[in-house]
Amino acid sequence: MPSERKFEGILVPMPLAFKSDGAIDHAATDAIVDFYLASGVHGFFPLGTHGQGMVLEIDERKKVAEQIVKRVAGKVPVAMHIGTANTYSSIDLAKHAAGLGVDAVAVVPPYYYPHDDYEVYAHYRAIARSVPGVPLFIYDNTETTHVEITPPKANKIIEAIAPNTLAGIKVSFIAYDKLLGYVFQLPKYVGVFPGGIFSLYSGYSVGVRGAIHPPSTPFPEACVRMYEALKAGNLHEAQKQHDLLAAVLQVVGRYLRTHGRGVFAELMRMRGLPVERFPRWETPPFTDKDRADLKESLQKAGFKL
Questions:
Q1: Residue 22 maps to which CATH number?
Q2: Whole-structure pTM value
């Protein structure tokens, strides 16, 4: 039976660990799931961009999906990313995820080729029909898909996927005023999740339901504390966590510019996780001095390792 659990709070787009040769590291992946469960995240959003889904083979994605669902063991909701550049592979992954009992399937628009609105709606309709009753989670991620999902288009997708429901939308790379357009123009049952933790801080009071923020994945505790403080009306604590995250994410951003996504492997190792490689591809290496500087910068920013 499809889940009726509501998505809210910090949905972690968990990174996927690899061995030094690029093979999936399943033992490290279990450790990462356990790390996020212990940190109190409110849900999982695996195998999207930060979860490296787009650089996995279909069979690899299925195996990782099975592993994550088994490890989470129903403790919090899971929205499994099943998006690909073509409808048929997405349907294959959606059916597999539905069979695992996920709470929703997350689907980017079809990408690479240009698609008009009709084709986008047809893509979502076909996926929904392949998994009757399973809620969908959609994206506006224009920067990577080159398909803009505006609030009116999202409402058309809701019509296209019916009787399946739209559990939520992740809105990436967007100005705050545009984010509010989703909050005010979509049905109240649709959760709006920005791809930025700071938009949660500023938007919670008007209906933003949570956040799905890859850069903050090494610091889940601070994100959870900020959300819980907002929910409790403790603005002093929410501001404290906001300021901590602002400081540490400036550090992360600096290393993203010089070392690419490889900074997340270093950060995960600093958090005690046995990660050999992230992302799957080779990135500029860290020297011992780089590592020492990264650790010192985080400590100066207020994050104790």
A1: 3.20.20.70
A2: 0.95
Q: Give the total number of structural domains in the chain.
A: 1
Residue 255 domain-assigned (yes or no): no
Q: Could you list the residue range(s) of the whole structural domain that residue 90 is in?
A: 9-218
Residue 235: inside a domain, yes or no? no
Beta-carbon-side half-sphere exposure of residue 157 (alpha carbons within 13 Å): 31
Q: pLDDT digit of tens for each residue in the chain (305 aa)?
A: 444 568 999 999 999 999 999 999 999 999 999 999 999 999 999 999 999 999 999 999 999 999 999 999 999 999 999 999 999 999 999 999 999 999 999 999 999 998 999 999 999 999 999 999 999 999 987 777 788 899 999 999 999 999 999 999 999 877 888 899 999 999 999 999 999 899 999 999 999 999 999 999 999 999 999 999 999 999 999 999 999 999 999 999 999 999 999 999 999 999 999 999 999 999 999 999 999 999 999 999 999 87
What are the residues whose beta carbons fall under 8 Å from the beta carbon of 91, sequence distance 6 or more? 126, 127, 130
Angle in degrees, CA 76, 80, 81, rounded to 5: 145
In a domain, 28, yes or no: yes
Domain presence at residue 202: yes
